[in-house]
Amino acid sequence: MNWRSVRAIFGHEMARFFRTVWQSLASPVLSTVLYFVVFGAAIGGRIQSVEGVPYGAFIVPGLMMLTVLQQSVSNASFGIYFPKFSGTIYEYLVAPTGWIEVTLGFVGAAAGKAVLIAMVILLTSFWFNGVHIAHPFWMLAFLILTATAFSLLGFIIGLWAKNFEQLQIVPMMVITPLVFLGGAFYSANMLPPFWEGVAKLNPVLYLISGFRWAFFDLADVPVGLSLFAVGLMIVACMVAIRWIFLTGWRLRE
Amino acid sequence: MRPIIDIDHLSKRYDSGTVALNDVSLQINEGEILALLGPNGAGKTTMISIICGLVVPTGGTVRVGGHDIRTDWRGARKLIGLVPQEILLEPFEKVIDCVRFTRGLYGEPPDEAYVEQLLRSLALWDKRDARTRELSGGMKRRVLIAKALSHRPKVLFLDEPTAGVDVALRREMWAVVRDLRAQGVTIILTTHYLEEAEDMADRIGVINRGQLLLCQPKAELMGEFGKKHLTILLDQPLIALPPILKGRGLTLSPSGNALGYDYDTRAERTGIARLLADLAEAGIAVRDVSTKQSSLEEIFISLVEEPQA
What is a GO molecular function of this protein (chain B) (predicted)? Predict the structure, then answer.
């Protein structure tokens, strides 16, 4: 393992983030504030509470997850796609740097940025709702694991994409619907039994459920299952990335 | 000199069926400058790309400094620096950060003194805080060289380093390459400019249609394949060639005061002695005689026009 190259890639990617730090932070924070205003204040005024938790606070974990998933996927996919687009990917391929170092560097930075933004949103939500966290360690663990899993997925999307349209289509057509249907703004228990069964086929439901459990001790599915789901996703993505690098698919001729 | 790169029966066939390299074997010696010549699509860039790890070969082996590029790729790649044909840089990155990044990517610890020395040697120190998009084409190319040298490689590949570069800058690049050679770096360059190969290379390899037609020391190549042109300046101008000199490949200059004669240095008889004797016999007085070696360009064209020669 070449740790110096991991650090170089990580630092390089984070530098890109900090070059435009205000844009990077302002956009997700603004959209989350809008969600708080619309869902928390306007609609929340009528819903009151879900399973004993004020609605404004109930949606905080879902909103954080929504941002983390979107940011992780877009950071990682753009991170690796940009050198492919500009041609500078050659540097990574000719350096004595293996797939694991390249993945750790890019995915570490993408997940790091997503976690940073999520923490800013959490601070914002304290101001709006006064949220309390039942299991802070597990909240952080779920946050980091989820950011890692979806950064890995984004990394695969970036490796696969041949143009900017492809880069955007998966987050837009797959990730966002999965998050909205994964209980970001409601509990799966609120659905009729049939739709509750369908909702449980959505992997994102397990992530949001685990994350919400860390906040409020409330979960749609067992916490162990949530951890297993995120772990499984990490392993599956790592296997796919290893295959891509070893075969050179869409990387080497 | 011992070989630092050992290419053995290297082949590359693309999925489309195109054979980019066909059974190429070549040894490159430590500290030499090897120029690879060939027309577009000859296989030069494919060969470099395979050695550097950008293209996967379909046959054969390559060892760099004794490290196999497939089984011991980390060892091999640590020794290599690559300057690609196109200018590939992140537009918003500072020059110095570009170089630091590449050094880190190769697993080398930070060394600000070396980075400064490198940038100074390439006349980039004053531009160290400039974003790469603000630089001229020549400066960008020098940044690519600085990046390729950031981890102190033993072998440097320059893929068409002076393509699209103006004459002054081209000479500047040549000076950089010579400096590197003086520091003991082995240099492999591909070029379209035969003048470049003629001026700089120790050995010249000619590739065409995926095959290495030859690889020889430059002087040997020029001697072996070179034709010479003999110019005979006459005391008195001639109106026409006398009958005794006709049919021997002689040309008379428009002014009539010089004769031109092409001959092959490899031929058993060049015909020069006989020609001079015939001139004397015809009563034509000679004022001066000079010869000129044919250029590498002419040699190159004669080789690639007969691909299997």
Answer: ATP binding
What chain B holds in terms of domains, given with CATH numbers, is 3-223 (3.40.50.300), 227-293 (3.30.70)
Cβ neighbors of A124 (< 8 A, separation 6 or more) are A29, A32, A33, A36
Q: Min CA distance, A2 vs chain B (Å)?
A: 6
ipTM entry:
0.87
List residues bridging with B229 in a β-sheet. B262, B292
Q: Based on the structure, what is the number of domains in chain A? A: 1
Nearest CA in chain A to B76: A96
A249 contacts in B (CB within 8 Å)?
none
Is A253 inside any structural domain? no
- Domain interval for residue A230: 3-247
pTM: 0.83
pLDDT (0 to 100) of residue B308: 47
Question: For chain A, how big is the Rg over CA atoms in Å?
Answer: 19
Quick check: A4 and B78 CB within 8 A? no
pLDDT in tens, A183-204: 877 888 788 888 888 888 888 8
Nearest by CB to residue B101, choosing from A12, A90, A248, is A12
- Confidence class of residue A130 from pLDDT cuts 50, 70 and 90? low
Q: Does A233 fall in a domain?
A: yes
Rounded to whole angstroms, the Cα distance separating A157 from A169 reads 10
